[in-house]
Amino acid sequence: MAFALLTSVPPVFGLYTSFFPVLIYTLLGTGRHLSTGTFAVLSLMTGSAVERLVPEPPEGNLSGIEREQLDAQRVGAAAAMAFGSGALMLGMFALQLGVLATFLSEPVVKALTSGAALHVLVSQLPSLLGLPLPRQIGCFALFKTLAAVLTALPRSSPAELTVSALSLALLVPVKELNVRFRDRLPTPIPGEIVMVLLASVLCFTSSLDTRYNIQIVGLLPGGFPQPLLPNLAELPRILADSLPMALVTFAVSASLASIYADKYSYTIDSNQELFAHGVSNLISSLFSCFPNSATLATTSLLVDAGGNTQLAGLFSCMVVLSVLLWLGPFFYYLPKAVLACINISSMRQMFFQMRELPQLWRISRVDFAVWMVTWVAVVTLSVDLGLAVGVVFSMMTVVCRTQRVQGLALGLAEGTELYRPLRESHKLLQVPGLCILSYPTPLYFGTRGQFRRILEWHLGLGEGGKEAPKTDGPPDAAGQPMPRCWDPPSPGSV
């Protein structure tokens, strides 16, 4: 329900999106530890697109019927985007493009989710402060939202601010306790459930919604929506938004599935993951669900709770089913500010990914640069444009790495059959008239000129194949001249 607010649709549609996609992925997915459903990054992207396609009327103060019509249009737009992203992923599956997962580096994915977490935090500030501000969309939306919040700060609601402060005061310490004592706790402390129950009871007994005009969730319709094909006429308009959503879904899901597959020694099929998430989004869109994918926070929670197979998804489906069928009325008086606080507290893991930056700097300066460029692009531009910038920059670093390779001359280690770089020892043997060269990068049109120059330098040849004077080679990483093959041709030979 909290992520439904990010998507700009009524909270009950978050429950639908936490049921149908989970059920479908349980049957089709290959990630044993993956938890699917609502994901903050996708919800934020979908909400921005929904606000652009179905904007709030400028006059505001909508009547009940007008509000229902606006919500219905937004739900239709969100479902159409889920349909479009699912269809695109099925098209990628048909073309066997699961191999694209190898081009989505870990720095790009982590910087994307960390930057998107900051977007989520800023987008929830109006709800925390009780400010009815329209959502900012497009490039620099984060800074526009901050400016709007600071301008409207004197009009904030003290009651909603108090509810938000008390909610965060409970949720944040509980999150820390769950992380710090995860090995000692049989199951994580359900801080969100406790907070929801306390806030609902407090709002009901104190009539906060009528006395202080606090926004509440309201009535959650029981049961399931009727299956409805999304308006296909909207597909051309939402195709540009569906493509980055499909890529983000695949990038996050494939990366997360690979991390846990490596940790627990099993394999995943990236093409089958494309098929599973494509079918999940396509079918769930018929039940008014918005785009969904694997989720970082709930996957970690699932693993901590002991889930080891896809069947764990069936148990979460049963919980959501009970809410849809019987427990929905208990959430009537739940303040929306509490949902915003749950959104923010669930971003903890994404924010703390920045702790890895010092280690990344020591391991690889190039990967550190990829992380920073992607993060800055996501924060300053938008999530989808930031992903595009990160992927392009990551590909550029791959090309640059092939241009900075050093060809190493090899020699035979005496008494063995091992060939080692000549720079490692002066006792390595060279066969007269034979140059053994290691060139650790693929040969293609972009490296052919560099390879020829390195080869000519090691053979002591200049332009036109003429013998070049013997000079020290370029310095290696330690600043020492690089040894090279050198066997001057005999007189009269070429």
Kindly describe this structure.
With 494 residues, the chain is mainly α. It folds into two domains: 356 residues, no CATH class; 90 residues, no CATH class. Helices cover 57% and strands 3% of the residues. It has a three-stranded antiparallel β-sheet, with no helix packed on it. A two-stranded antiparallel ribbon has the order 1-2. α5 runs antiparallel to α13 and α6 runs antiparallel to α20. The longest helix has 31 residues. 39% of the residues are buried. The C terminus is likely disordered.
Summarize the structure.
Helix content is 57%, strand content 3%.
List the helices and strands and how they pair.
Layout: H1 2-6, H2 12-17, H3 20-28, E1 36-37, H4 40-53, H5 64-94, H6 106-123, H7 125-129, H8 141-152, H9 158-180, H10 191-206, H11 208-211, H12 235-263, H13 270-285, E2 293-294, H14 296-304, H15 312-327, H16 336-345, H17 348-351, H18 357-363, H19 365-380, H20 383-402, E3 408-412, E4 419-421, E5 437-438, H21 448-459
Antiparallel strand pairs: 1-2, 3-4, 3-5
